[in-house]
Structures are given as structure tokens and as C-alpha cells.
Amino acid sequence: MAGTAQPPTIFVGGCGAIRGMGSRVVVGRAGVARELRAAEALAERLRAPLTARAPWLTAALNVRAARRGGGTPVAVVVDVPGGGGVDAAAFLHLRRRGPVTSVTLLGDGVAPLPGGRPTGRLPAADEDAADRLADGIAELLGTLRWPWSLRLAGLPLGDPTARRLAARFPAAKLANDRSTRLVDELDGTGPVSRSRDPRELEHRLPLLLEREGNRRARAFLRAAARLHAATGSLEVAVVPGGSGTAPEGCLLTLLDGGERWPWWAAPGTPGLRTEPGSPLVSLTVPARSLLPAPDVARRLGVGRR
């Protein structure tokens, strides 16, 4: 598939050509990685969670690329008028499932994910940028040669792009679900060692990976933990075992400024509990809905197939 496509004509490899309408599409690992870095300033300004920022999504990008049949990463980008930055962006993942192309957020489907709050974002600088981003996503979907389904999950309440995108498809559905967060009460169990030193992570990583039973989750856990440890955004907490024995428990916590977000714990780690977290929003368009609403289809120039 093509690596990068530029306006005014955007080529999505194997999916046809579409005319740029305030957004552009980039296809492939290298190009999407570049757009993740370019959009990081916007994500930081909007206080997007670490799970919707460049390091995390780069780890997801690399892990997916290593899998056979891992699909295709795509970025829909709205540039600042006149250049000089990104106004909005959607980082997506396209994968064929039988006769249907499944379209999700790039970070969806990788594990482990921290719970308790929305992990996904469709970052947009303002309402106009959100509108242009929704147009760009609808435009991309309209060019796919195969039937497609859309599922954008883990979004916050009131996401302006999701709301606008839902209005463009008659069968679209916005739904809310309650998340569950992990609560760190390790200090109440006795001595706990906490460190942000990347060397401590490397020392503990073999044990952590051994206690993660899911092979695919181990690959992402390793990649994401290393990237966030390198930027000082990860804490490793260890509950020591008896003399000469392996630790009784381990906890990885994401650090975003002054906020702590417990992420992953080894099975059996003491001093942890769960509680209800924030609502999560998902936008779905089922495979049977292959076209935008008629007025949007006319505006985007998308014909019936």
C-alpha cells in the first residue's frame, strides 16, 4: 500500500482515490508514525491520555506490524490552515475480517489497557477542526472497495468528532459503558519498592512477562513499558516476597504529570482493588450501512456501489 498521500488527491492503496476536502490521508507504518509525532503537540495541548499519545500508539503500531495479517494503519489528518501544525487527527486501523474491512482506532485491540477512564481520542483543536475530521473519516470510508464496519471505542463523553461522524451515517450508534479502574493500595500491605528508573523496569521485566499469560499481551506490555519508562512516565512497584523468593506482586503505573493511572498488575498482587470508573463512549456503524446519509454522500461525492 502507498506510504503517504498528499492533497488535492488522496490515494488509499487498493481503496481507490478520493478528493481532499480539508483533510489528508496517510497509509502505512512509516507515514503514520511520522503523523503521530507531528500530532503530539496537539494531543499534549488537549491533555489527551497517555494511551492516545505518540509513545503508546507507536508501540501499538509496531506490535501490530509484527503480526501476520496485522492490518493497515491509516491516519486522517487536518492541518492548520497555512501549515505549521495539526488541527485534528484520527489514527485508525483497517483489517479485513472475511468479506468486511473492520475500521477501529489504532490503539483498540491491543492489551493490556489501563481501566477507569477513556483511553481513545479523536483530537481536534476546535469545533471546525472536528467537523473537518469527521468529513475526512467519512470520505475515507466512502472509498473502501469492500464492505466495512466502523467501531471507535473508548472515547470520552461529548467527543465532538464522534458526534459529527454519527450524524453522517443513518445506522450509526453511540453507546455508553461504565469502566472499571484499578486502585493501588499496595502501601497498606507492608514494604513496597517503587521506582521510575528504566533500569529497574529492565531488571523486573522478565518476571513481569512471565506472569502475563497472554502471548500477544506480552509483546505490547514489553514495548509500551519500555517506551514510557524511557520518558519517565512509568512507575514499577514491587511487593517483596520472603527471603530469597520471587516478589509477591508487581504493579505498573502510568504517570502523566501529577496523575497516576494503575495499568497492569501481576496476578495475585496484594493490596489492589477495583471500583467503577468514568463512562466510555463507543461509535459503531455496522457492516450493512455501507454509505453515508444521502445528503452527506452528495456533498462528499460518494456514489452508490
Could you walk me through the main structural features you see in this protein, from its secondary elements to its overall organization?
This protein is an alpha+beta fold and 305 residues long. The chain folds into two domains: 191 residues, Aminopeptidase (3-Layer(aba) Sandwich); 85 residues, no CATH class. Helices cover 30% and strands 31% of the residues. It is built from eight helices and 13 strands. A seven-stranded mixed β-sheet has the order 3-4-5-6-7-13-8, sandwiched between helices. Strands 9-10-11-12 form a four-stranded antiparallel β-sheet. A two-stranded antiparallel ribbon has the order 1-2. Strand 11 and strand 12 form a beta hairpin. Helix 1 runs antiparallel to helix 3. The longest helix is centred in the middle third of the chain and has 17 residues. The protein is elongated. The protein starts with 8 loop residues before the first strand and ends in a 5-residue tail after the last helix. The N terminus is likely disordered.
CATH architectural designation of the largest domain: 3-Layer(aba) Sandwich
Number of helices: 8
| Whole-number mean pLDDT | 87
The first-level CATH class name of the largest domain? Alpha Beta
- Based on Cα principal axes, name the global outline: elongated
Largest sheet: 7 strands, mixed
**Count of folded domains:** 2
Structural class call reads alpha+beta
Strands of the widest sheet, in order across it, are 3-4-5-6-7-13-8
| Secondary structure: helix percent | 25-40%
Our estimate of the beta-strand percent is 25-35%
* Low-confidence residue ranges: 1-20
Distance between the termini: 23 Å
So, the CATH homologous superfamily of the largest domain? Answer: Gcn5-related N-acetyltransferase (GNAT)
User: What is the string of SSEs from the N terminus onward?
Assistant: EEEHHHEEEHEHEEHHEEEEH
Classify the fold: give the CATH topology of the largest domain: Aminopeptidase
What is the strand tally? Answer: 13
Integer-rounded radius of gyration: 21 Å
